[in-house]
Amino acid sequence: MIRWYHIIMEAVNVVTSLLSNQYAVISGASQGIGAEIAKVFASEGAAVILLARNETNLRQVADEINRSGGNAIAYPMDVSITDNWRKLSAFMKKKGLSCDILVNNAYWRKLVPIGQLSDEDWQQTLDVTLKSYFLGSREMIPFMLERNRGSIVNISSLQSHIPEPSFGAYAVAKGGVDALSRVLARDYAPVIRSNTIIAGAVDTPGFAEGDDFKRELGSRLPAGRIGYASEIAATALFLASSQSSFITGSEIHADGGRSIT
Ligand SMILES: NC(=O)c1ccc[n+]([C@@H]2O[C@H](COP(=O)([O-])OP(=O)(O)OC[C@H]3O[C@@H](n4cnc5c(N)ncnc54)[C@H](OP(=O)(O)O)[C@@H]3O)[C@@H](O)[C@H]2O)c1
């Protein structure tokens, strides 16, 4: 009796999981928002392929997912390099993996007034924060076309709409991300959807500010606090899944209401 109960509950879980039988590739998945997205997607039945440079952190995230019954592969790489994406694609084909969902999430930035930014830092910002989104999309789109479905979720920032001082090249790169997302939506409709999350301040290792600063910043937002990575992951899950099947070329603000202040 108990055995039948488990078999039926497992079947129900497969049916109700939002991402069952799907592969998701997530860049910047070794910590913060990317790691949270990986955990949420895996808990909804996706096999997740995790990308970032720090192999130790990446494997920790993958191990945690696999220990809790999910399916995660850690693939350490610098996502700003074209050849790395080609090698990933070849690896996926060799292993019989595919891609239904791509989350472009990795970023790099240097906070200085734009007039003090070196050529190298400008280029590095654009390479990691914008070019990697293009490279990832270009390399994963053939998998999606082959499967006749796909969703690309691009993680952007409110800095592309309302830049704070010294966010220069990062804000410019994120503006490019917003446009790229719409371009992808136009070029690959109706098979592939592409949408953007405009994130506000979110408590992650990358948001390296003290608790007092976070509290003070949060108190100025309509939400009364800054965001959690899990809240961006929940938004990404919505955009990745068929729950958002009529949404493409859109931006969702997950910013605690900052854009209306
Ligand atoms: N947190 C916020 O307040 C906030 C606000 C608005 C938007 N966002 C956006 O949300 C996304 C995630 O931010 P987060 O706060 O979660 O950042 P985070 O904690 O600093 O994590 C960034 C991730 O990107 C990876 N990464 C950086 N450079 C890489 C490269 N060249 N190749 C591969 N992976 C690379 C890092 O891993 P490795 O170092 O191991 O490579 C790490 O996994 C970003 O797109 C960011 O712009 C965040």
Could you walk me through the main structural features you see in this protein, from its secondary elements to its overall organization?
This protein is α/β, with parallel strands linked by helices. It has one domain (18-253): Rossmann fold. The chain is built from 8 helices and 9 strands. It has helices at 2-16, 32-43, 55-67, 82-94, 119-147, 168-188, 211-219, 229-240, and strands at residues 23-27, 47-52, 71-76, 101-104, 150-157, 192-199, 202-203, 227-228, 251-254. The strands form 2 sheets. It has a 7-stranded parallel β-sheet, sandwiched between helices. Strands 7-8 form a two-stranded parallel sheet. Helix 2 runs parallel beside helix 3 (55-67) and helix 2 crosses helix 8 (229-240). The site of NADP nicotinamide-adenine-dinucleotide phosphate has 30 residues, from helix 2, strand 2 and strand 5.
The biggest sheet, with number of strands, parallel, antiparallel or mixed sense and barrel status, is: 7 strands, parallel
Radius of gyration, whole Å: 18 Å
Succession of helices and strands? HEHEHEHEHEHEEHEHE
Shape: globular
- What low-confidence regions span 5 or more consecutive residues with pLDDT below 50? none
Put simply, the count of helices is: 8
Strand order of the largest sheet: 3-2-1-4-5-6-9
Number of strands: 9
Overall CATH architecture: 3-Layer(aba) Sandwich
Protein name: Short-chain dehydrogenase
Organism: Paenibacillus montanisoli
GO biological process, one term: bile acid metabolic process
Family: Belongs to the short-chain dehydrogenases/reductases (SDR) family.
